[in-house]
Automatic annotation (TrEMBL):
Statement: the UniProt record of this protein carries the keyword Glycoprotein: yes
InterPro entries named in the record: Calcineurin-like_PHP, Metallo-depent_PP-like, MPP_PAP, PAPs_C, PAPs_N, Purple_acid_Pase-like_N
Stored Pfam families: Metallophos, Metallophos_C, Pur_ac_phosph_N
Keyword Glycoprotein assigned: yes
SUPFAM superfamilies membership: Metallo-dependent phosphatases, Purple acid phosphatase, N-terminal domain
Protein name: Purple acid phosphatase
EC number: 3.1.3.2
Top-level EC class as recorded in UniProt: hydrolase
Residue ranges annotated for the Purple acid phosphatase C-terminal domain, each copy included: 319-370
């Protein structure tokens, strides 16, 4: 029987990728679907990948991937998946809207486990009520997907099915995915591009979103080639996204990567932050902060620290400081708000100049404890782009 069902965006609003698992080999990998309320008369077939976990039992999972094409943007669809050995329950999703003049709504978070996943009930309800156009999971899944011969990974994927089968679930790898060269992550998720979800980009409304791996800087046993390939991809992708004609179409450039470049947590991770900012070795090879600054990244979403922290604009340890809200002595001047309570973040890319973000505190019953609007100067960026991105 199909299980662990989830969908992901491809960047094309007429498409949706459906991914699921069977614990035995099957002859079919089919999605039947149609506009909501109609018989599931449309059919698409896909591919099956045999995945052998690296644990002692060498468990085998069969990963099914089917891309739906020809969807009508903003149309709601019913679907089920599987084949004649067994079908899933019926789920539904909204095809993404087309164009740039709409307001995508998202939830984002990282470090979500199978146990003590306090935010899941809130996210499930929101997703099934249609409050999100996408969910961004910024690394660290299940704790850990490979545990118990990958049964923990199965449990986690079934747990998030109640939201990920309804809303595109977009991911990046974290340090807890590193086992067997990130094999559980690379096999279980289906992200855009041909890099097994390690790094990729996609468009949604007026935003260009880039997902990347901070972990290539820390697990060099998997090869320095991963750092080089990702850095070259990031530079190409950012250069193209920052061209005046593209920046005018999609002004927002948003990145998501697991480890932060800055944090104020007292857990000794500032060295890791430094590596992500400045690159590896004393020669600072492949630094991400300078690259992101050069091409005008507007917003960075990170995770890893088990807390919520929102920063003022910052580059090279130099931040913007409010003169009206004094901070405690142990809070750096580039931190705007922080809390260690459980929660998740909602984001609404309202238009080409405004992004609204709010933090939901589930320890306080879903109370919004922090909110802000990020406003883009509509006159400054194009002059900045002409100066910094000439080719």
């Amino acid at each position: 029987m199909p299980e662990q069902i989830h969908i992901s965006a491809t960047g094309d609003p007429t498409e949706m990728m459906v991914t699921w698992v069977t614990l035995a080999a099957t002859n079919y990998s089919i999605v039947e679907y149609n506009k909501v309320g109609l018989p599931l008369a449309l059919r698409a077939s896909g591919a099956i990948t045999k995945f052998t976990d690296g644990g002692s039992a060498h468990r085998v999972l069969y990963i099914h991937r089917v891309k739906l094409t020809g969807l009508v943007p903003d149309q709601r669809y019913d679907y089920h998946c599987g084949g004649y050995e067994g079908w899933s329950a019926k789920f539904s999703f909204n095809a993404l809207k087309s164009g740039v003049d709409w307001s995508p709504r998202m939830a984002f978070y990282g470090d979500l486990g199978s146990v003590n996943a306090k935010s899941v009930a809130y996210l499930q309800e929101d997703a099934q009520e249609g409050k999100y156009d996408a969910i961004l999971h910024v690394g660290d899944f299940a704790y850990n997907m490979e545990d118990n011969n990958a049964i923990t990974g199965d449990d986690f994927m079934n747990q998030i099915q109640t939201m990920a089968a309804y809303v595109p679930y977009m991911t990046c790898p974290g340090n807890h995915e590193r086992a067997y060269n990130f094999s559980n992550y690379r096999n279980r998720f289906s992200m855009p591009g041909n890099t097994e979800g390690i790094f990729y980009s996609w468009n949604i409304g007026p935003a260009h979103i880039i997902s990347y791996s901070t972990e290539v800087y820390f697990w060099l046993e998997f090869g320095i080639e991963q750092i080089v390939q990702q850095y070259e991809f990031l530079e190409r992708d950012l250069r193209e996204a920052a061209l005046p004609e593209n920046r005018k179409l999609r002004p927002w450039i948003i990145t998501m990567g697991h480890k932060p470049m800055y944090c104020s947590n007292a857990d000794g991770d500032m060295n890791a932050d430094y590596v992500v900012r400045k690159g590896i070795t004393s020669k600072h090879l492949w630094p991400l902060e300078d690259l992101f600054y050069k091409y005008g990244v507007d917003l960075m979403l990170t995770a890893h620290e088990h807390s919520y922290e929102r920063l003022w604009p910052i580059y090279n340890m130099q931040g913007c400081v409010s003169k009206h809200d004094p901070f405690p002595k142990d809070q750096p001047p580039w931190t705007a708000y922080r809390t260690v309570d459980y929660g998740y973040t909602r984001m609404n890319i309202q238009n080409k100049t405004h992004i609204y973000i709010e933090q939901v505190n589930v320890d306080l019953g879903g109370q919004v404890v922090d909110k802000m609007t990020l406003i883009k100067d509509v006159h400054g960026p194009e002059a900045w782009i002409r100066k910094n991105v000439k080719n």
